[in-house]
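Q: Got a minute? One more chain.
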Amino acid sequence: MKQAKIPTSIFKRYPGKRVAIVEGKVIAASFDATIAYESAKKKYPNKRISIFAVPRKEDKYLLV
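A: Always. Here it is, folded:
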C-alpha cells in the first residue's frame, strides 16, 4: 500500500482539522472527518482519499 504524501503547509493552515488528501493535495478540510471525506469523494469519486488529523500547536502526543 502506498503512503499518502502530506503537504507540510497543512500544519499552519488547518490546525485541529481533519483534511482529505488526494495525490498529495488537500481537497477538503473540516473539524468533522466524515464531512471532509464526503466532500472529497464528491470531487474525486474514483481516487483514493486519505484523511489526516492535523494536530494543533498545543496538542501533545503520548509516546508509548
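A: Residues 33-43 form the longest helix (11 residues).
Q: Perfect, thanks.
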